[in-house]
Task: inverse folding
């Protein structure tokens, strides 16, 4: 049975993003992907999104991002399946409105799929909705 933990990020999302995309934990970054942003520049892209929402009066709190951990029992799934399940979960919950980076850690016997999602919605021009 998988379980999920969610933590707010209030100070810096860069450190969390660097941690979850660590090549030693993610099979040399093979198990790292992003939605609405590039994993390599996600901290900058999240900051730009926060700045855009602030300018448009949509700033709704002081959480820069959210750190989600989705863990599985040993032997319950393999890393690729865990990664795919994590992407499906993020897509269903975030509904394409938030940028995120997802990684799957394989540095121990328990695959853990980890997401960092921007704390504010990305502004989408009405023409693209």
Result:
């Amino acid at each position: 049975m998988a379980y999920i933990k969610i933590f707010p990020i209030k100070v810096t999302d860069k450190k969390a993003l660097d941690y979850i995309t660590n090549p030693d934990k993610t099979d040399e970054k093979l198990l790292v992907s992003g939605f609405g942003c590039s994993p390599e520049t996600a901290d900058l892209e999240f900051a730009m999104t926060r700045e855009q929402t602030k300018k448009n009066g949509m700033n709704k709190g002081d959480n820069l991002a959210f750190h989600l951990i989705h863990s599985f029992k040993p032997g319950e799934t393999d890393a690729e399946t865990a990664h795919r399940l994590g992407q499906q979960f993020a897509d269903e919950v975030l509904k394409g409105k938030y940028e995120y980076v997802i990684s799957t850690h394989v540095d121990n016997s328990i695959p853990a799929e980890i997401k960092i999602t921007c704390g504010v919605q990305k502004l989408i021009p009405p023409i693209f909705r």
DSSP finds three helices and five strands in the chain.
